[in-house]
Amino acid sequence: MAQAMGLEIPADELARLSSTLDALEAAFRPLAGKLDPSVDLAATWLPPAENPQ
Amino acid sequence: MTIVEAAAALRARKVSSVELTRHTLAAIEKQKALNAFLTVTAELAMEQAKAADHDLKDGLDRGPLHGVPIALKDLFDTAGIPTTAASKVYEDRVPERDGTVTRKLAEAGAVLVGKTHQHELAYGITSDNPHFGPVRNPWDLERSAGGSSGGSGAAVAAGLVAMAMGTDTGGSIRIPASFCGCVGLKPTYGRVSKHGVLPLGFSLDHIGPLAQTVRDAAITLNAIAGHDPEDITSSTEPPVDYLPAQEPSIASVRIGLPENFFFDVADPEVVTAVHRMAAMAESLGAQIVSVRVPDFAELNAVARILLLCEASAALEPHLNRRELFGKDVLALLDQGRLIPATDYINAQRLRTLYRTRFNQIWNYADCLFTPATPTTAPKLGQYQVEIGGKMEDVRLATTALLRGINALGLPALSLPSGIAKTGLPMGLQIIGPAFTESLLLRVGAAIEDERGVLPSPPVV
Predict the structure, then answer these.
(1) I need a surface site. Which of B65, B277, B403, B448 has the fewest CB within 10 A?
(2) Is A45 in contact with B331 (Cβ distance < 8 A)?
(3) Do B350 and A31 touch (CB under 8 A)?
(4) DSSP assignment of chain A, as one string?
(5) In this complex, do A32 and B335 lie within 8 Å of one another by their Cβ atoms?
(6) Residue of chain A whose alpha carbon sits nearest to that of B193
(7) Is the backbone peptide bond immediately before B148 cis, with ω within 30 degrees of 0?
């Protein structure tokens, strides 16, 4: 992905980052996978009391 | 001296603002080993102090902060004074205008003595800064003051100033408050303007005070809360008087103790201290209820995705100059650039879901008591910490009980819950529904009054 995006991140640093990111994605992706299509996001993040959702 | 004490002494003519400021500047100089300040604004402070004394003499009283020395984290724009975020990226940055909070504190008569040191770009929790050295903890100079508002925490805990402003994107006010043994208030998202504060996570950044007492935090919130047309995320919810009464009543307040997560991932001594605070609240008439909270580890994962992406976006213009960043910050910035946009969007959708789920708690409890940090302050350079016999990453463990609250935008107060056997302070976190700062401060003040004064750190 870094290559595709043209990011200049040294290879050794990329290797170090990937394990941390993998762990985060392992926790996150299952949650995202279970999202119902009806769940919207606020286009602008409003203070909780003022957000209609 | 607290803000309340200083305000009384100034009005009784027992001390002048010039004397207070001179004393503060001398104390900052004496405690240089803490490395709590990046810039000391001695000349400006003396000018402001003279003006404050003059105004008070003429009968112009701007309120409890009038003539009281305070400090700002180095993220707050100050006209003509370097505002660098303790980074090389912004090393030469000198704003032309004050930010809104800077302006409001000046209008309240506060005397600015300097800009406090912090974690580089506010992106970390140790304040062990590769460019300007570490902030040191007044309880043990070999330990972290926490971060990112480490200089503010150290300065307040060491008694250099009564109050110093901080910012909190994933715990950055509450962590130094817990590690240094002072009070830290993260108000509701939108309660305090972010205008003129360098951003880290646009939808996660909160602005609030670190202070010696709960009442001093309340006095500060009174001065800085309110709608600001210059900040599009600023709330139009009218502020109230946040200062708790002299003998605040917490009778019938329902205090929730989470059944899951919060007490499972903290040191037993920290857990015991929170339970002691809950028992204290119960003795004052509060009702203790057991509540189950939505999966906080999941919410933390959502908040991490949001922060990684938003911080990398904020610093994108500078990321081609890798030599400007410390190793830990650069690693996080690189991670943020490798997360797909779909993950960021889904994290925002999950945030909506968790906010709805978390708000169900308020049907059963008026606020929650949890530990602020799961441990006391780690040593500088320590990367892992032992919790329940398991080694954990210091950054992830320290933010575990805090980060999710930023994604929800809820207010949270951290105050000392006692001193551990190691001689280091421990922190209690009180979390409430949106815009219930006055309740949190009332509960905090009642606990603080009942708990009594804790010992001062050895450097004082």
Answers:
(1) B448
(2) no
(3) yes
(4) -TTTTT----HHHHHHHHHHHHHHHHHHHHHHHT--TT----SS---GGG---
(5) no
(6) A47
(7) yes
Encode pLDDT of B31-60 as tens digits: 999 999 999 999 999 999 999 999 999 999
Q: CA-CA distance, B84 to B116, in Å (whole number)?
A: 10
Nearest to B191 by CA among B432, B447, B355, B446: B432
B202 CB within 8 Å of a chain A CB? yes
Q: How far is CA B251 from the centre of its chain?
A: 28
Q: What share of chain B is helix, strand, coil (3-state, %, to 5)?
A: 40, 20, 40
Strands B254-258 and B367-371: parallel
Residue numbers in A near B345 (CB within 8 A): 41
- Residue B155's alpha-carbon distances to B2, B92, B145, B223, B330, in angstroms, are 13, 24, 10, 20, 27
Taking the C-alpha atoms of residue B405 and residue B361, their distance in angstroms, rounded to an integer, is 13
Return d(Cα B309, Cα B338) in angstroms, integer. 9
* B73 has catalytic annotation: yes
* Distance set, CA B102 to CA B70, B73, B207, B233 (Å): 11, 10, 11, 18
Mean pLDDT by 10 residues, chain B (460 residues): 98 98 98 98 98 97 98 98 98 97 98 98 97 98 98 98 98 98 97 98 97 98 97 94 97 97 95 98 98 96 97 95 95 95 95 93 98 98 90 94 97 98 98 97 98 89
pLDDT recorded at residue A50:
64
CB contact under 8 A, A50 and B190: yes
Q: Which residues of A touch B409 (CB under 8 A)?
A: 45, 47-48
To which H or E segment does residue B353 belong? helix B341-359
- Substitution target in B328, B348, B360, B395 with the highest count of A β-carbons within 10 Å is B348
For residue A33, the distance in angstroms to the closest alpha carbon of chain B comes to 9
Q: Which of B190, B298, B350 sits opposite A47 (nearest CB)?
A: B190
DSSP tally for chain B: helices H, then strands E: 14, 17
Is the pLDDT at A27 greater than 80? The verdict is yes
Instruction: Work out the number of other CB atoms within 10 angstroms of the CB of residue B54.
Output: 12
How close A5 gets to chain B, by Cα (Å)?
A: 9
Whether the pLDDT of residue A5 is over 90: the answer is no
Average pLDDT, integer, range A11-38: 89
User: Looking at this protein, which amino acid is placed at residue A4?
Assistant: A
**Whole-structure pTM over 0.90, yes or no?**
yes
* Cβ B248 vs Cβ B445: under 8 Å: yes
The shortest CB-CB distance from B335 to any of A20, A41, A53 is to A20
* Torsion of Cα atoms, B72 then B77 then B81 then B85, to 10°: 70
State pLDDT tens for residues B85-142. 999 999 999 999 999 999 999 999 999 999 999 999 999 999 999 999 999 999 999 9
Start-end of H helices in B251-325: 268-283, 296-315
